Q: What sequence folds into this?
């Protein structure tokens, strides 16, 4: 898949992305980023 098509898919088809890591206290940490599409 070409990078332009991949980026288009991220913008148009995927609503949110969740990232998971281990915090400094050893517990799981997650953050969810809402992908907002803005068109002028």
A:
């Amino acid at each position: 898949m070409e990078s332009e098509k991949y980026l288009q898919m991220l913008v148009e088809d995927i609503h949110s992305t969740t990232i998971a890591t281990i915090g400094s206290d050893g517990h799981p940490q997650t953050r969810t980023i809402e992908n907002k599409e803005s068109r002028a």
In short: The longest helix spans residues 3-13.
